[in-house]
Amino acid sequence: MSAVRPVFSMVRERAEFVVLAALVLGSFALPKGLPLGVGALGVVGGASVAMQAIAIVLIYRSNRIINFAQLQIAGVAAAMFVELTYRRTFLMGIHVVCGSCVRGAPSVIADEHFALPVTHAAWLLQLNFWLSALAAIVVALLLEMVLFAVVHLRRFANAPRLVVTVFTIGAGQAFAMLGLLVLYAFRDKHDYVQAFPPAFPFHWSATVGGVTFATPDLLAVVLLVAISALLALYLRRSAAGAVLRGAADNPVRAQTLGVNTTAIDARSWLFAGLIAGIAAVLTAAQSSASGGLTLVAVLTAAVIGGLVSLPTAVAAALVIGVVTHAALWSFNTTASVDGVSLLVVVVVLLVQRSRRARSDAAGEGWTQSVELRPIPRELRNLDVVVRWQRTGLAAVAAVVLGLPWVLSPSQTTLTDVVVLYAA
């Protein structure tokens, strides 16, 4: 018995990685298994999820709030990028200024007449693409900083963190409407979606397990590695990164030392906006490899990372991508993934160790009005206590395992969101 306790303690210490490893091994047990190409598709799809999870973790570490508007901000940037690239808006501007530089030709789109620029100069098309991508990233940065400015108003700065988190949900709906307005403005009252994504001006390709990956797919993985490495270097090696980590752990102590915590928080939001813009451009340029970027997947990855661990959140996002594509390969649907996400979140929340920072332990931010005290150590080994603990865990496991079989896919997704909100 004494030899088992250290193993159990180690498993509990690294419960997230144990659960993630079990998910990967379970993917091999599916009816069609996990071919190499399908696994690679999952890694590519998980890269976009990982970027958004990084942004959510950065903001939570600095402000102790979950930014539920993160995906909507990226959605506005993606809509802007697609429209600017497809309409060749910047080339139209050049055509207005210099008519002989870029020739315009009439075109009919969605029963509406337009004058789209026609040019054989490759560098002009590349210029329009990069300017469109830059504009999308700038839009994401601006929206992120607007939300940061509102959150740091005196009314919200002194409010409980739960209130501010709920506010970001409403802000996300407003940004979603803004994305629809962008499409409405460009498409002149027609809701037509482009059948093909914007193409990068340079071409990369790689074949893994019989699956061919294009430029945006490879760039998603490369940029994820680059962003993770640069953030790790910045947070651990630079003086500014050390100040950011210290201010996130204990903002009151940082303020007494003369640190401008608002400026430090702004850096986290700035990084989150930059990452959201990059992820938006890559997701818009991808075809089907991304597998559908959902809030449930992003929040699941962030929650598995305890909302503080960037490496764990990235690993969780990649595993979620692999499991999603494995389920799609075996069952031709991802409905079961929502149930698995719910199970994973519940298991991780039950067994993962507390990762609250010192500021949380000191009472910073929102806490429950009635604190739930743990079972006293003297009573933990009593038979009645152990019996009730096992009964409770068995009941929770039965509910979690049975809900996906009883609820519809939409109800399962709603249940996932409710559990993630409560986490």
Q: Could you give a short description of this structure?
A:
With 423 residues, this protein is mainly alpha-helical. Helices cover 70% and strands 5% of the residues. A hairpin with a 2-residue loop joins β1 and β2 (112-118).
Low-confidence parts lasting 5 or more residues at pLDDT below 50? 108-113, 188-195, 354-371
What best-fitting shape do the alpha-carbon axes yield? Answer: globular
Mean pLDDT across all residues, rounded?
A: 77
Oligomer: single chain
The largest sheet, given as strand count, sense and whether it forms a barrel, is: 2 strands, antiparallel
- With strands numbered from the N-terminus, the spatial order across the biggest sheet is 1-2
Order of helices and strands: HHHHHEEHHHEEHHHHHHHHHH
Describe the structure.
Helix 3 crosses helix 13 (295-304), helix 9 crosses helix 10 and helix 15 runs parallel beside helix 18 (409-422). The two termini are 33 Å apart. The chain is built from 18 helices and four strands. The strands form two sheets. Strands 1-2 form a two-stranded antiparallel ribbon. A two-stranded antiparallel sheet has the order 3-4. Helix content is 70%, strand content 5%. The radius of gyration is 24 Å and the shape is globular. Residues 108-113, 188-195 and 354-371 have low confidence and may be disordered. It has 423 residues and is mainly α.
